[in-house]
């Protein structure tokens, strides 16, 4: 290996240093790999978020769990830290290790999906993206809860939660998982379940990347809904005080517990003048035809008429999945080429302690004023997780490593450079920090809000509590036991 590796990791790891040539050990195992200087290295090591550029020690392409085990062993022999890349959509390029020098295990050659129609289960390899999973399951009349963008990888997504429009009725992407096939830090291949390895299985469901490389997940699937429709209501150029009261009334409606086939999010973005914002509700309904709008009606009754509204789609479930996806297609063949340059933060609001009207208005005032002048493209998205009738919050906070089950709303506060390319403007960091502060500074200091591990924030203070809350202590002790040499280490990984 290069001197680079020696400098960074020989001292970081407390194992006797064994020199072995990484390239030759991978080649002799028949595993393809890309190294610095190779023609394809630049493309292979490019992050989705171009705010980050990292130089992995190598990017390696296994085709089996045995290959993954061999790669981990080669990493150990060369004192390298090892990381998996699924769809590569980590907000902070953690699929590249979140720093220089990691050995990257790219899962893109492991894309099988095996459906057992007799018992309605599926085994999904972690090189698949959400679009691949949705299309394959739908062809068998089945579905899973997961996020909207087709290009996101199921590996990272289901490791940290995985929220989408069917989550209120089916849970997070990690919830239907009943077994996880993985390779541990010592290279051992395991099939973990709640019964076989309660600690490992618990930790993998919400914090997997700190503990193992997941090669496939075994899931219980759901019958694809026979009717699905997307709803879109937009209020353009809303005065900030009105926008704050709309957000508050949406919270009130959410707390009343719309039926579980109902899903929705708000997106607030720049208005055409200082003091105004654009306010859009996008919802979905997976129940009886004709019940979508009546379910939303109690909120529409307290809202002014929208500037525009539409029902999107023709009732087909898979069509609704495509409508909600960006790009508007479930074909992921060009996914590796897509990029952005952005920073994002999140807030998960506790269902038992909802936002005050003052906090809602403080946010919309900030968006309408500072947001109008921001030199970024930004949005503030409010995702409906909870409320009575949500499957997400039916599970206890300590039942899996995913700690923030009792969330009503997950806010995603997101800003990108105007042309989508680097550099991300320096002012864009404080802009989003103050968006968060506009809410939190108007809530009591004891407000137990959280942050979402799939919207990872490399600038976040106190992330242990915000991401993992009361589960962090148990995660640390499992980490200490499973990865004592610190093989799976990246920004915001569980500390030993
Ligand atoms: C455009 C876009 C849209 C999004 N939409 C949603 C959404 O609707 N809902 C939602 O909940 N989230 C959403 N996300 C966030 C997304 O869920 C996370 O970024 C997710 O972690 C990405 O997973 P990945 O496999 O694509 O990323 P990667 O960068 O490959 O991986 C992310 C993390 O998981 C680890 N990892 C990946 N695969 C494995 C594996 N097999 N074993 C162990 N660790 C692994 C990586 O090491 C890294 O730490 C979105 C992100 C983007 C960029
Ligand atoms: C909803 O409407 C807004 C504003 O008209 C538009 O920008 C957005 O693309 C629409 N979304 C869907 C899913 O149709
Ligand atoms: C809150 O919801 C109730 C019904 O659940 C409704 O009667 C009331 O008008 C709502 N208030 C606001 C401020 O939206
Ligand atoms: C719905 O529209 C899509 C194209 O957008 C089409 O492929 C599908 O067959 C249609 N389904 C129904 C039930 O009309
Ligand atoms: C997906 O898109 C690619 C080109 O972008 C095309 O070659 C391929 O045929 C498409 N796949 C399907 C199933 O439509
Ligand atoms: C690898 O680690 C696991 C979990 O700690 C342990 O059960 C197993 O025995 C270890 N295997 C080897 C070969 O040390």
Automatic annotation (TrEMBL):
Q: Where is the FAD-binding PCMH-type domain?
A: 52-224
Keyword Flavoprotein included in the entry's annotation: yes
**What cofactor requirement does the entry state?**
FAD
Q: Which UniProt keywords apply?
A: FAD, Flavoprotein, Oxidoreductase, Signal
Q: Which GO terms describe its molecular function?
A: FAD binding; oxidoreductase activity
Q: Which domain of life is it from?
A: Eukaryota
The signal peptide, as residue positions, is 1-20
Q: Which Pfam families match?
A: BBE, FAD_binding_4
PROSITE patterns, from UniProt? Answer: FAD_PCMH, OX2_COVAL_FAD
- SUPFAM superfamilies reported in the protein's UniProt record: FAD-binding/transporter-associated domain-like
Gene3D superfamilies given in the database record: 3.30.465.10, 3.40.462.20
Q: Which InterPro entries does this UniProt record tie to the protein?
A: BBE, FAD-bd_PCMH, FAD-bd_PCMH-like_sf, FAD-bd_PCMH_sub2, FAD-linked_Oxidoreductase, Oxid_FAD_bind_N, Oxy_OxRdtase_FAD_BS
Query: Family per UniProt?
Result: Belongs to the oxygen-dependent FAD-linked oxidoreductase family.
**PANTHER family per the UniProt record, alphabetical:** BINDING OXIDOREDUCTASE, PUTATIVE (AFU_ORTHOLOGUE AFUA_1G17690)-RELATED, FAD-BINDING PCMH-TYPE DOMAIN-CONTAINING PROTEIN
**Protein name (database record):** Glucooligosaccharide oxidase
Please name the source species: Rhodocollybia butyracea
